[in-house]
Design brief:
Blueprint lengths: L10 H19 L3 H5 L2 E8 L7 E2 H19 L2 E13 L5 E13 L6 E15 L2 E11 L2
Parallel strand pairs: 1-6
Antiparallel strand pairs: 1-2, 3-4, 4-5, 5-6
Protein name: Nuclear transport factor 2 family protein
InterPro entries: NTF2-like_dom_sf, SnoaL-like
Amino acid sequence: MADSPRDAVPAADVLAVHQLYGRQSHAIDSGRAAEWAATFTADGRFRSPSYPEPAIGTAELTAFAERFHAGCEESGERLRHVVSTVEVRTGQSVETLRARAYLQIVGTTSGGEPRLHRITVLEDELARTADGWRVRRRTVHRDG
C-alpha cells in the first residue's frame, strides 16, 4: 500500500537523513567518536545484538565509538559502514521521522581482500533538533 500524500516526507528531509547517515559512517570509520555520538540526540540510544548492552546518551555513545575504533586498530583491519536502501517515513509528529536501511560492515587489511563482517537492518527513530535530524533510537537487527 502506497503512502498517502499526507504521509509523504519532504525531499529535503529525506536528503538530510541520507547526509546524516553518511556523516555517521565516515565519523565512526575514521575514529571520530565524539562526532559520531553527536549524530544522536543527547539522550540517544543505540542497541545492537553485536554488543551486550545498549549505549545511551552522549558519553556512552562516544565511549562505544572509541572502543569500536580501538578494536579496529588492534586488529589491523579497516572497517567501512555501508548504508543503503534507505526508507524514510513519517514519525509520530512533524518533529520525528522513522527510517529503515540496510547496513553492511566490510573490512579490509593492507593488501587483503575485503571481507563482509555482517549485514544488518537499521531501524531508527529520528528527531528534528536545532542542528538538524538526529537519531533518538537506533535498533540494529542482524540478517540471517
